[in-house]
Amino acid sequence: VQLQASGGGLVQAGDSLRLSCAASGRTFSSYSYAMGWFRQAPGKQRELVAVISSGGSKNYAESVKDRFTISRDDLENTVYLQMNSLKPEDTAVYYCATRRTTWAPALPSAYEYWGQGTLVTVSS
Fold first, then answer.
1. H/E run at residue 120
2. What is the mean pLDDT of residues 96-100?
3. Which of 7, 8, 88, 93 is nearest to 43 (CA)?
4. Which of 3, 37, 70, 109 gives a 20 to 30 Å CA spacing to 19?
5. What tens digit of pLDDT does each residue of 40-96 get?
6. Is 113 left (phi over 0), alpha (psi -120 to 50) or beta?
């Protein structure tokens, strides 16, 4: 399974960005894979942003609730992260991940496959 993330960039506080992550691979089937977004800021551990099960159940980090929205398009094998009202503390490398289960755990260590990361920088 390969994941290709895109959509990062430099924005100002209060702006919006949408990240995309396309999955591919002979064994990948959106209908049986959970997907998610995690982030890692300099000097910090990788942390949950949002995850979505194959059935569409979502889980968000408290720090992004009501600002970020995760969604998936199973026909396109793509997961999205719509980020609104961005804050400087959202600055990080954002990684998409997937695992071969229908449910979506919150721990990064639970995920088998990772994309290359896309940098989001929010200036104040």
1. strand 118-123
2. 95
3. 93
4. 109
5. 999 999 999 999 999 999 999 999 999 999 999 999 999 999 999 999 999 999 999
6. beta
Q: What is the pLDDT of residues 107-117, one digit of tens each?
A: 999 999 999 99
> What is the spatial distance between Cα 78 and Cα 103, in angstroms, rounded to a whole number?
17
- At position 66, the amino acid (one-letter code) is D
Ordered DSSP codes for 2-62: EEEEE--EEEETT--EEEEEEEE-TT--GGG-EEEEEEE-TTS--EEEEEE-TT--EEE-T
- Side chain identity, residue 75: L
**DSSP string for residues in 75-123:** TTTEEEEEE-S--GGG-EEEEEEEESSSS--S-GGG-SEE---EEEEEE
Greatest Cα-to-Cα distance within the chain, rounded to the nearest angstrom? 43
Residue 94: per-residue pLDDT: 98
Structure-block tokens of residue 107: 């721990």
What's the alpha-carbon Rg for the chain, to the nearest Å? 13
